[in-house]
Amino acid sequence: MRLYLSLFYFFYFALVGVYVIFMPKVLLDFNYTKVEVGIIYAAAPFMRFLLPFIFKYFINLSQKVYLSSLLLTLLATSLFLGTVENFYFYLLANLLFGAAMGVSLPFVETIALQRISKEEYGKIRLWGSVGFILIALWLGEFLSSEYEALYYLLGTAFFTLIFGFFVLKFDTHSSHEEQANDKSFSISQYWAFWMSVFLMQVAFGGFYNFFTIYETDHGVSLQVVSWMWTFAVVCEIIMLYFQGGLLQRNLLNILKVAIFITAFRWLILYLYPDNTIITFASQSLHAISFALYHSAAISYVFSLYTQKKLAQQFFLGIGFGLGGSIGALLSGQIYGEYIFLIEAVITLVAWGMLLIHDKRKNLI
Fold first, then answer.
1. What is the pLDDT at residue 362?
2. What's the rounded Cα separation, in Å, for the pair 7 and 13?
3. Three-state SS for 249?
4. Secondary structure of residue 237 in the 3-state scheme
């Protein structure tokens, strides 16, 4: 089980790595405007936001639906090859891609959280970071054409399908029992927490979609930027390996610290955009603002609701979906000198929302 989970994470996040790190720059090379890049990178997250509401009322996240999502991911990446030079057709392909990717990860995350301990989860999940880092290093050195990045998207999607298929045998949870309770799932009961999740990912919009462009605009080479991404993920891997003990503590306190440190991280990028050493230092905080935050957040959501798969879908949908979509659109509009200062302010508001949730949950 651990092998197949590790390989699924490896190729899933290698796919994400190509999509996030290199495709924004590739789209600019295809003469997309920065606003159009923002719209494209809002499409896939927006679909992830819509999906949980559809699954809550109309669809059961079954094994067949999960397998279909893996096949649709492969289909969408195939469509990228034929549509990338047309903004509108490429946008449609990204909507399909977002919908497919928004199904498979929550399904696998639920299996992982049910079948392995918190300590083991980090040591298995880190293989996703390894996939992300290896693709960043490889393409940073050898990417020679725009279409080559699309071929790597297709290849990683294929292997995600293969190993995602083998993960299925470890799904022993009764989806019928969970589906019966899905309609009682409540977002409003913990609205401040979900608002915090949403704003945290809005604030990541500038980083995910424009960090490469931001740094190259300040005179940093694409090769060095790829090393910056790599360094961030190395720090992420170290955190994932050793975070088990931390996750045994108060998860809300961990989330508060992680969000506050993330605000500081964006402030550093605003103040020192062309200082390579300081930017590398800010990238080390990815261990906290992504790895520790993500593990603590999905663990907290897992403990908060009885509808486990649906809860993970909503976490992905509200955070990486709606938050990522709004964050991509916003970052495309505000890109410039003050982008990371604005992201820092948004992150502080997310921190405030979590403080409100912490006070309210004791009254519920």
1. 67
2. 10
3. coil
4. helix
Residue 313 has which token pair? Answer: 């879908």
pLDDT at site 2: 79
Read off the pTM. Answer: 0.78
Structure tokens belonging to residue 36: 């159009």
Give the type of residue at 155.
Answer: G
SS3 at position 113: helix
Residues 45 and 330 sit within 8 Å (Cβ to Cβ): no
Mapping DSSP onto H, E and C, the string for 134-196 reads: HHHHHHHHHCCCHHHHHHHHHHHHHHHHHHHHHHHHHCCCCHHHHHHHHHHCCCHHHHHHHHH
CA dihedral 8, 12, 13, 19 (to 10 degrees): 170
145 phi-psi bin (left φ>0, alpha ψ -120 to 50, beta other): beta
Spatial contact of 178 and 310, defined as CB atoms under 8 Å apart:
yes
Nearest-angstrom CA–CA distance, 20 and 15: 9
Q: Determine the distance from the C-alpha atom of residue 141 to the mean position of all C-alpha atoms in its chain, rounded to a whole number.
A: 24
Chain-centre distance of CA 262, in angstroms? 15
Report H helices in the chain. Answer: 2-17, 23-29, 34-57, 63-83, 87-115, 118-142, 146-167, 175-181, 191-202, 205-217, 222-242, 251-271, 276-284, 286, 293-304, 308-314, 324-334, 339-361
Phi/psi region, residue 198 (left: phi>0; alpha: psi -120 to 50; beta: rest), is alpha
Give the rounded percent of residues in the chain with a pLDDT score beyond 70: 95
Return d(Cα 293, Cα 285) in angstroms, integer: 11
Please tell me the total number of residues recorded for the chain in this structure: 364
Contacts 24+ apart (CB under 8 A), 359-362: 360/190, 360/192, 361/190, 361/193
Residue 232, both tokens: 């961030």
Q: 303 falls in which pLDDT band (50, 70, 90)?
A: confident
**Confidence label for 43 from pLDDT (cuts 50, 70 and 90):** confident
- Position 248 scores a pLDDT of 81
Looking at residue 285, the DSSP 8-state letter turns out to be: T
Please give the distance of CA 303 from its chain centroid, rounded to a whole number: 21
